[in-house]
Each structure stands twice: as C-alpha cells, then as structure tokens.
Amino acid sequence: MTTTQARTEADHAHGADPHTAPAAAGHQGGHGPHGYSAQKDAHLKRLRRIEGQIRGLQRMVDEDVYCIDVLTQVSASTKALQSFALSLLEEHLRHCVAAAAEEGGAELDAKVAEATAAISRLLRS
Amino acid sequence: MTTTQARTEADHAHGADPHTAPAAAGHQGGHGPHGYSAQKDAHLKRLRRIEGQIRGLQRMVDEDVYCIDVLTQVSASTKALQSFALSLLEEHLRHCVAAAAEEGGAELDAKVAEATAAISRLLRS
Amino acid sequence: MTTTQARTEADHAHGADPHTAPAAAGHQGGHGPHGYSAQKDAHLKRLRRIEGQIRGLQRMVDEDVYCIDVLTQVSASTKALQSFALSLLEEHLRHCVAAAAEEGGAELDAKVAEATAAISRLLRS
Amino acid sequence: MTTTQARTEADHAHGADPHTAPAAAGHQGGHGPHGYSAQKDAHLKRLRRIEGQIRGLQRMVDEDVYCIDVLTQVSASTKALQSFALSLLEEHLRHCVAAAAEEGGAELDAKVAEATAAISRLLRS
C-alpha cells in the first residue's frame, strides 16, 4: 500500500464526519488518533532501534560473522518487531475495538474479525 | 555482541589451523566461508529491503496510518526476516554441519545441538 | 491449574453478582457464557480432531515413519491448535472485552492487558 | 498420509538395499532407525502427555472455564508440540543429514533442502 492512499487512524476511529470527530476525540481523553499520537514517539523510537538492528545484521553479514551468531541477532529483531506489534494491538483493542463496542452489532463484529485476522497474520509470520 | 569480537565463518569452518584451512575450503568447492561469501550479495540485498520496510513502518506511524494496516506491514517484515534466517540456516547445514559430520562424534553433536538451539530461538521469537 | 479451581466464563463476564448475572446474560442474547456455550460443540469437535492427530503422531513414531513426515504432521497439529486459539480469542474479544468496554476505565484496561498477554503467549509458543 | 504408505526411517537412512542396511546401521553406532528407536519411548511418553493436555482442554471447554485460562493451556500444548518437533529435528540432523554428508553432493543438498522446508513449516505454524 502506498501511504498516501492509506487509511488513517482518524478515518477509522470516528466514522463519517471528519470535522466533528477530532474535537470529540479530545473530550474522550485518549480515544482515537490522539491516544495513538500520545504513543507515537515511543513507537518511532522502537522502530528506529529495530532499524539499527537490521543495519547491524548487514554489518555482521559483511564481516562474515559466524552464521549462528547472525541467527541469534535475527531472533532478537523478530522478537522486537513482535513486541512492537503487540503494543500497537493493545492500543487498537483499547481504542478502536472499545469504540466499536459502544456502537455494537455489525460494527463490533467487523472490528473484532479484523483484529483477529491481524493476530492470525502475526501468528503465521 | 560487538562485531570486532565476533567469531567469523572462517574460524568456525576450519577449526585449529587457520593457515591451511582456506586452501582446503577452496578445494571443497563451496564449503566454509567461500560458500557463505558467494551468497553474501543476496543476503545484503535482502537485508537492505527489510531495512526499507522498517523505514516504511516509521513513515506509517508518523502519518497515523490505521493500526491494522501497520500490523499487516509488521507481519510482512517479520516474514522477510524469517525467510532470511531460513536461507542462512540452509547454508549453515550444508556447509558447517556437513563439515562436522565428516569429523563425526563430539564435533558433530556440538554443531547439531548448536543449530537446534538456533532453530528453537527462531521458533520462540 | 485444576479445573475445579478454574474460573468460569460466567464469573468473568458478569462480575460481582453471580445470582443475577446468568439471567442478564440470557437477555443480552449471546454475551457471556451463553454465547460461549453456543460454540461449545464446535470447539469440542475441533479438539477431538486434534486429539486424533496426536494419536496419529504416536502411531507414526511407533511405526518408525520417516522423521520429516512426522514433522509435517506436527506442523498440522500446531496449526490446528492455533486456529482453535484464534476462534476462542475472537469470541473473547466480542463478548468479554466488549462488555468491559461498556464499563470503561480500569475494567477495560485490565481486560485489554489480559487479552494482549494471552496473544503474546500464543506468539511465543 | 496413511501410515501404511508412509516411508519409514529405515527406507530413508539406508537407501536401496533394505537387507544389508540394518546391519550397517548397527555398526555405525546409532545412525539410522536404531538411533531413532532408542529415543522412541521418550517420544511416545511426550506425545501421550500432549494427548492428556488436549483432553484437559476438552474438559476446560466443557466446564466453561474462562477463555483466557483455556488460551494459556493452548499455549502450553503448542510449546510442548514444538519441543517434540525440535527433538525429532535434532535427531534427524544428527543421523540422516550427517549420513547424507558422507555421500555429499546432490544427496546432501536434497536432505538439507528437505530439512529446511520442514523447519519453515514449523515456523509458519
């Protein structure tokens, strides 16, 4: 997906009316994009550390480091990516799924099915 | 581990005598560090693509892309890291474990235990 | 855990008052233990199929079936267990987490943290 | 696969001549089916314990045990299956891959590719 086409948190958390939604989000104290943004710095810091690990892997391969030691570093990077995914998912359940629960019915079912599919992809990767 | 301390493929593949080993490796047609180096470019290309994916994740978080779409990209990156690990492991089994098999006994047991521990770390990450 | 000590769905879904809760659940049309029970037969059928797979593995080992073929069957059984976990998790998000969302605050945070920890254990197994 | 059609360890470890192979295996001190058989009891004990865990899961579902507690038990069973897979794989590398290494060339390549594919299936399950 190109990021210009990408749906944003605000589109999803607030549904049809993008003009009134941000204000509502502010009143809800952390639901929707603002809750997400509050954690943005932590997420970006985490991803920059993972980027550093991937560059470390390139150095290791370049310097003919012993295969098993490279694999140990790959496991550490994969674990760091999974941790990042879990923190994203926790936020998503707390904000988006909870917001859908207030609407109930089909909206909740759709959000829960979507979250479950995302967890399934994480499990199979 | 710092890479200056890191063991190299050559240390491992050839055991006690680092002077005669490289020549032997050449004769074996791909065992040891030379087999590893032949694939180096492919490995580095793969890792640079993964580095690009991690930077893509940073852009997605920065632009408040919808959580589930970020998670899909995390799954793709994890899968790419696992594929890289599998290609390293396949090389390792073909060269290092096979070389140990020729020596047999304790040397083979040690290499197999080491490879199994690495696979276990991949499974749990 | 012994199952006699185990918490039940009804304890969790309805909080402090175990006497009024079951009736309430009936009125909610699928939340809490009744939603869970509706799927019980499907769950039990799935688990009996997995039990059959594990007995199949015993036969394979007993008959000295080739190692790689046994591993293929282990992967199938692991995948079946993960699918079962995902269907349980989906139900849990739809009923328990959604119920907690209606109460909001600390209750929601606790349920989301608990679900995330469970997902983390699945990812690491 | 039906187990009557299944390849056995003996077929694989000894190639074309099933009559002379077992004797050779005895001389190799643990390679081939005899090494495998020595661990058979440990494998079967392990699988019976996993079968007990799966029956425990059925009881938990039947008694409406809280979802998250069921998921914890699923994670334990998945981990036990993965451990079983790793012990099978370690034996396989020690015996079959090492035996192929002695023959070298295409035989080794085929065995390594086959083992890597099995590891890949475990990672994706």
Question: What does it look like?
Answer:
The structure is a homotetramer of 125-residue chains. With 125 residues, chain A is mostly helical. Chain A has helices spanning 9-14, 21-28, 33-38, 40-62, 67-103, 105-124. Chain A is elongated and about 55 Å long. Residues 1-5 and 13-32 of chain A have low confidence and may be disordered. Chains in contact: A-B, A-C, B-D, C-D. The interface between C and D is large, with 61 and 61 residues.
Let me know the average pLDDT of chain A.
79
Uncertain stretches of chain A: 1-5, 13-32
The SSE order of chain A reads HHHHHH
Largest interface: C-D, 61 and 61 residues
Helical stretch tally of chain A: 6
Oligomer: homotetramer
General shape of chain A: elongated
Radius of gyration of chain A: 18 Å
Separation, N- and C-terminal Cα atoms of chain A = 19 Å
Structural class of chain A: mainly alpha
The biggest beta sheet of chain A is recorded as:
none
- What level of helicity do the residues of chain A show? over 70%
Strand content of chain A: under 5%
Total strands of chain A: the figure is 0
